[in-house]
Amino acid sequence: MSELSVNHLLGIKYLNKKDIELIFETADHFKEVINRSIKKVPTLRDITIANIFFENSTRTKLSFELAEKRLSADVINFSASQSSVKKGETLIDTVNNILSMKVDMVVMRHPNPGAGIFLSKHVEASIINAGDGAHEHPTQALLDSYSIREKLGSVKGKNVVIVGDILHSRVALSNIFALKLQGANVKVCGPRTLIPKHIESLGIEVETDLRKALDWCDVANMLRVQNERMDISYFPSTREYTQQFGINKKLLNSLDKQIIIMHPGPINRGVEITSDVADSKQSIILEQVENGVAIRMAVIYLLASKI
Ligand code: CP
């Protein structure tokens, strides 16, 4: 029987191509399940999962919780802002206290890069990284690639541009790893100040002209400017950023092919993307969210089978 090469999902960096194929094949099955009238399977009746979120989330938190419930796992939710973390409790103590209640798996979002890796070395549970600072957001990258595969038949050979704040984006890094592993051609586009200096070493090109990037690509993944991770200004004004790196309907319609528009959310409408593009037929933003549940069911199921 096929199984993942890892016991935790800490980043796409730790997966191989076969892992991604297995996750997608498993997600295909679960996508069929969640479109039935009875959307639940009894598969993980004996598993308890803790979702611990030290940073805000809408999509990832709800999507994981729904995925766990669709698999019939027992679920507990922990939000750092309402917890004893505020009284000085450490991450390891917090998680070990949760695990002593017989929890098998931890889904964690944390503002510090590497928090999931650290945790996996100190606690006895399977860890899923739901976003660690500006490092990785593996399930987002998996659902993004899965959505491209669903829309275009495959990821291999497709031209994908990731546009925006690459420097602070865990989504960008995880997408680069996932797309390259599957044989896509990847470029990033944004202000030079928001592109990491050594990004070319990952085998991708930098394009600072959005028009040229859009002419080249099959898929444009538009990212939000992460103001909450910035302590200085990286561009003169939001207006100027939008003029140079925002996508609007006029620009989209001027291309000589129909590209696919993606966005991991949350969207800043009118900044990196206008409403008429976000809500257009070329946008698959809500399909990405829908696919997130099937992808997370697949990841949880495959990791749980190794416990
Ligand atoms: N895409 C994503 O991670 O969204 P949330 O921050 O709402 O979870």
TrEMBL record:
One of its GO terms (molecular function) is aspartate carbamoyltransferase activity. L-aspartate binds at K87, R170, R224. Coiled coil: none annotated. The keyword Transferase applies. One of its GO terms (biological process) is 'de novo' pyrimidine nucleobase biosynthetic process. It comes from the Bacteria. SUPFAM superfamilies: Aspartate/ornithine carbamoyltransferase (SSF53671). It holds the Pfam family OTCace_N. Pathway: Pyrimidine metabolism; UMP biosynthesis via de novo pathway; (S)-dihydroorotate from bicarbonate: step 2/3. NCBIfam families: asp_carb_tr, PRK00856.1. Belongs to the aspartate/ornithine carbamoyltransferase superfamily. ATCase family. Catalyzes the condensation of carbamoyl phosphate and aspartate to form carbamoyl aspartate and inorganic phosphate, the committed step in the de novo pyrimidine nucleotide biosynthesis pathway. This is Aspartate carbamoyltransferase.
